[in-house]
Each structure stands twice: as C-alpha cells, then as structure tokens.
Amino acid sequence: MPTFTVSVLGGVVQDLTTIVDRLPDNGETIVANDFTMQGGGKGSSSAVATYRLTRPNPKNRPKSRNEAVDNDVRVRMVGAVGEDRFGPALKENLAKHGINVDGVRVLKGQRTAVSNIIVKADTGANQIMQYPGAADALKPTDFTTLESLGGGVAPDMVIALLEIKRDVIEQAIETANRGRVEVLVKPSPASYLVPKIYPMIAHLVMNETEAVLLSLCEPEDVQSEKGLAKIAEYFLRLGVKNVVVTLGEKGAYYDNESKSGFVEAEKNCTVIDTSGAGDSFVGGYVADYMAQKQKGQWDIEIAVQYGCKVSARVIEYLGRLEPIVWADEVDIPRASKEIGKTQ
Questions:
Q1: With contact defined as beta carbons under 8 Å apart, do 303 and 259 qualify?
Q2: The whole model's pTM is what?
Q3: CA distances (Å), origin 150, targets 106, 197, 293
C-alpha cells in the first residue's frame, strides 16, 4: 500500500489552561478550580489527531515480533518555536507522539508561542488568547517549494492553520496548488484570505465565529440550516471544493457539489474542555478523507460524522493534545472514567 504524507502548517504552542467557575470582573481576583500546562497549538493538535486517527493505539493492540508496526500515513509538523524553555521541549514532545518535526525550526532570539486558555467548569466552553511567538518570524519565501511544505519532503496533503501569518499561509497554499497538492484550511485565528486563494482550497473547515467573519454574513445565519447553506454557498462560489462549519454542541454543517446537510453532535459524552474539539475534528475529517480516497471514493457526510464523533471523545478530558483518541478508541465513551484525568 502506498505511503501518504500529511504536513501540518501551524502553531507549536505551550498551553496554559485554567479552569474557573466564572470569569473575573475588572479588577477582581478569583480562585481557579484547576490548572494544567501542556503542549498544544491548533497545528500540533491537528497533527497528533491525524496521526492517531489513522492507526490503533499500540497499547491496545500488542504486536507480535513478525507483525509490521508501520503505517501508510505519515504526519509532519511545519512551524517554528523559540530557543527558550518551551520550544525544544514542545518539539521533543511532538516527536514522542509520532510526528516528524524536521520542519519545526528552533529560532534563536525568538520566544515560543503561548496560549492562555480559560475554561468554564460548568460547560467546558473556552476562551483562548494566543501569542504567536516564533511563528511570526516565518516568511512567505520560506515556502516556495513542495519540499518546504513538508519539512524536506513533498507532502500529499497540507493542513494549514492561520496561527502562522496570513501572507505566509497564502504562499504555502499557492505552492501546494502548483504542485497539485490538496490543502485543508482551518482559518483560526480568523483572518481574511485574498479571493484568488479560495479556488486552491480543497477543504475549508470553520467554526461558527470564523464562518460569519469570513463570509460577511449575519451572526443569526449560523442558527438555521438555511443560513448555513447561505454561508457555504458563499465559499463554494469563491471556488472552495468542500465547506464544513462546525457548530459545537449542535454538530456540523457540510456542503460540496454533490451533497449538503447537517450532522448532529454526539450525545453520549460529558463535556470537560472544548478547547481541542475543532483540532480533533480536523484530524478525524482528514483521516476519514484519506481512507476514502484510497478506496477511490468521497462522501463528505461520512467524514463529518467521524469528525463529530472524534470531537466528542476529546472534550471529555482537559487539554488539547494529550486527550486525543486513537482510531480504535473513537467508539468508546470515556465519560464513565474519572473526570478531569488526563492521559
């Protein structure tokens, strides 16, 4: 079976997550319920999700000496960290999770990206403030060849997140397009892309806030299927091939030239932290897309269903990267386990 390489252009970030009952008022100090410091970033989380969701957990599937331990999907992270206490450790952590980090540069004189994440204890809803750090030092000229998109290897698919500056990501998309490499874009943090870029995007995956901002539609449009169809049609007219709008606890809306519709979110889960839901959705969606592609087929609804199911497993734990499930764990709810425990 041929080997497929997926590269992820995005953030390698130190997450600082605080759990609170409520947000403090101006000038007020409150006592938090919990705190964790973990590797994160939307790019890193998407990379680990793609890796894990294309193979079973080795701990759940002991291998004999003669059984191949390799897999036909490789995942490579491309980005930058600073030469500080966080950067090299984050790079090493990604490597331990199976991700090739040849494309993650350690930049002297730069600081590693940091996310301050506040999670509401009762709902798992999150607010994220991200300092881009070393990622802002990357330039469009760094991504003019296919090999530069994969950290030295030409990828078969690129996942691009706007944790790296917009003009850099746009150049990366143009380079991928010239090489006929498919690109999935997760426009987070939300930023406008120049119109000529949209026809080069095979998959556009956004949450409600990003969809409203980038489509210039009204906030109430994400409250109805008719409004979501309007948003999706906006991007399809611009040339995007597949459009997905994730809707949190409601599920996700999808649209392409073949079909459109709504997938409900998984109900059998206990919400602890939603900060990694979108990244894991992307990983699940890509994993299913590649599995279908190898069979010569494509049904966007099935990929969205899988993405929703994956997200439901991740939000049952605190953190973005560590709680991501493997392919053989997606159908196993973890709500019955000890709440708040991380893997």
A1: no
A2: 0.90
A3: 16, 20, 20
pLDDT tens track for 219-277:
999 999 999 999 999 999 999 999 999 998 899 999 999 999 999 988 877 788 777 78
Angle at CA of residue 11, ends 31 and 124, nearest 5°: 35
- Three-state SS letters, the chain: CCCEEEEEECCCEEEEEEEECCCCCCCCCCCCCEEEEEEECHHHHHHHHHHHCCCCCHHHCCCCCCCCCCCCEEEEEEEEEECCCCHHHHHHHHHHCCCEEEEEEEECCCCCEEEEEEEECCCCCEEEEEECHHHHHCCHHHCCCHHHHCCCCCCCEEEEECCCCHHHHHHHHHHHHHCCCEEEEECCCCCCCCHHHHHHCCEEEEEHHHHHHHHCCCHHHHHCHHHHHHHHHHHHHHCCCEEEEECHHHEEEEEECCCEEEEECCCCCCCCCCCCHHHHHHHHHHHHHHHHHHCCCCCHHHHHHHHHHHHHHHCCCCCCCCCCCCHHHCCCCCCCCCCCCCC
Q: What region, left, alpha or beta, does residue 3 occupy, with left being phi > 0 and alpha being psi -120 to 50 degrees?
A: beta
Tokens of 332: 């196993």
Residues 259, 293 contacting (CB under 8 angstroms): no
Which tokens hold the place of 219? 């906030």
Give the distance, in angstroms, between the CA of residue 340 and the centroid of all CA atoms in the same chain: 22
Say if CB 30 and CB 24 are below 8 A apart. Answer: yes
Closest CA to 9 of 143, 189, 112: 143
Alpha-carbon distances, residue 282 vs 8, 78, 287, 307 (angstroms): 11, 16, 8, 7
Query: Which residues, in sequence order, are bridge partners of residue 34?
Result: 19
Task: Give the separation between CA 197 and CA 251, rounded to whole angstroms.
Answer: 27
Query: Given the structure tokens 């600082």, which residue do they identify?
Result: 16
* φ and ψ at residue 70, rounded to 5 degrees: -85, 170
Do the Cβ atoms of 314 and 325 come closer than 8 Å?
A: yes
In percent, the amount of the chain with pLDDT more than 90 equals 71
